[in-house]
Amino acid sequence: EFANQMRERQFREDCDAFREFDGQQLLRECMEARDTALEEKAEAKRRQREEDAMWHNRLLELVRKAEQREEADKTRETE
């Protein structure tokens, strides 16, 4: 009887240890997934900023060219 109780107790303790290990492993995996998601989000923001800057520069260039054409048209009209 005593041996059975000790085996059962040891089994419960082992199960608790396995559950704790599984919980810790799951926590590590969640932390890794979160870190990966944060890195991906930061990379997406960086790419978006670069794209925004590119479009901004293109727009500024188009505006500059339009102003130059207008200025050229004005000088031709006055001649």
Task: Please explain how this structure is put together.
The chain is an all-alpha fold and 79 residues long. The protein is built from 1 helix and no strands.
Question: Quick recap of the structure?
Answer:
With 79 residues, the protein is mainly α. It has 1 helix and no strands. The N and C termini lie far apart (116 Å).
Which descriptors would you attach to this protein?
mainly alpha, rod-shaped
List the helices and strands and how they pair.
Layout: H1 2-78
Task: Describe the main β-sheet briefly.
Answer: none
Mean pLDDT: 91
Q: Proportion of β residues?
A: under 5%
- Secondary-structure element string: H
